[in-house]
Amino acid sequence: MDLPAEPQIRWILRRTAALLEQGAEPVRGLVLPTASYFPDTFDGSPRAVAALLARVQAHAGLSDLEAELNVVTPEGEVASSGCSSGGCGPGGKIEARLDRVGRRSDGSYVVAVGTGEVGNPMVLTTALARSVACMFMTEAGAYDDMPPEDRERATDLAGVLLGFGVLLANGSHVVVKGCGGSKVHSATRMTVEEAGLSLAIFCGLFGVEPRAAAKHLDPGPREGFDLGTTWAESNATLVRRLRTDARSIARDEFVLGEARGWLSRVLGIGKSKRAATADETISALERSMRSAAPKKQIDPERSKKLAELRALVDESLDTR
Hints:
This protein is mainly α. It has two domains: 6-250, no CATH class; 263-318, no CATH class. It is built from 13 helices and five strands. The protein has helices spanning 6-21, 46-59, 115-118, 121-140, 148-171, 192-206, 210-214, 219-234, 236-244, 246-250, 262-267, 278-292, 300-318, and strands at residues 67-72, 101-103, 109-114, 174-178, 181-185. The protein has a three-stranded mixed beta sheet with strand order 1-3-2. Strand 4 (174-178) and strand 5 form a beta hairpin. Helix 4 (121-140) runs antiparallel to helix 5 (148-171) and helix 8 (219-234) crosses helix 9 (236-244).
């Protein structure tokens, strides 16, 4: 597994900056799949699914929005109250579709989920988190002037910023076991790598300890998140600019740093999960030279080598 390609990283940063400007921030912090956040008894009934939707709305700070929940059978039959939006599609599949959310003329919403989704807790919570993110996007006018091809992924990203990153990251890589073996499905439009990076950026933005998220992630999403965390910590200044200078980020006025500096890779320094910065690398070299050289006088050859390395680093930084 690798980080998303640079165009995808830049898209995530630009869209994150725009969504922050539109108010996409967590109300309850990082929402975790635990009884503390989801204490309601769940028996798979339409009433229980509706209660779960209400809980997700509350975590997003959107309890004031009226929403009706419809559970739809594979044959297209509604298993709960009627849906007047026309947005109820057939159930039974793992899908990432915005058309599951309909908005009535009075401003209320209708959310449709399939019976097959109700049977998988991970898929169901992902579908509901995306639905609530869609409500936020609609209320904020975030879909206005947005290219249609960006809307699904932007909804996933909004869900991450609202606090549902762990739920969505797990939903991006759902392992389903069957007679023919295991298959991986996705209930999001973001890839598992994109979801992991977005969650890592969220943690950096809102001061969430990465370990708090990582311990609730399945192996695939955890790998994507670990890669994203390394990148986010290596680009901490850029991540902070999402809050302090969002408009320039939205205009694509930024330079991406590597997840781990090239000098650290060559010299074998800073092999921890967090990449060593240029200053940390030079400091490590200085400590090494002080311990190896006589206390009263630094070896001229080592001193010359250090000066050359400093010049090389400065030249590299000047070219960025």
